[in-house]
Amino acid sequence: MIGYHWRGYPNPGTVSAVISQVDEKDFYKVRLAKFRIGDIVRHRIYPFRGVIYDVDPVFSSTEEWWESIPADVRPKKDQPFYHLYAENAQGPYNAYVSEQNLLLDETEEPVSHPQIDETFSGLEDGLYVLDPRQSH
Q1: Do 4 and 15 form a contact (C-beta atoms < 8 A)?
Q2: Domain range list for the chain
Q3: How far is the C-alpha of 76 from the C-alpha of 99, rounded, in Å?
Q4: Fewer C-beta neighbours within 10 Å, C or N terminus of the chain?
Q5: pTM for the structure as a whole
Q6: Are 21 and 34 in contact (CB under 8 A)?
Q7: Per-residue pLDDT tens for 52-66?
Q8: Helix, strand, coil shares, percent, the chain, to 5
Q9: pLDDT-derived band of residue 79, with 50, 70 and 90 as boundaries?
């Protein structure tokens, strides 16, 4: 049986949401997500970091967005992609990043993004806690 676990912690609400996004024929091809909602991550190449607020089991943005990435650094589509409340030196923004390009941010410093309070109730031990009023 396939399942989604984030570093050993099952997240049933997210599991059903993620599984519902996958076509039946592709169900067994989906990889396990390495990161979980609320994790603070950083890009492995570019200077930005953020908090994960959603995950797609495979690429699900537009083909235009995909083609805008230079071919020599374009990630594969068949991996989890994460939605981030991100920040860099210019300020906050939302990012969509492949799993291969993310690393855990070990600083445990909070992320400064105005939408964090809409999704999370706080920061505990380096992890943003999903607001229980949010259905994901």
Answers
A1: yes
A2: 37-130
A3: 10
A4: N
A5: 0.77
A6: no
A7: 999 999 999 999 999
A8: 20, 35, 45
A9: very high
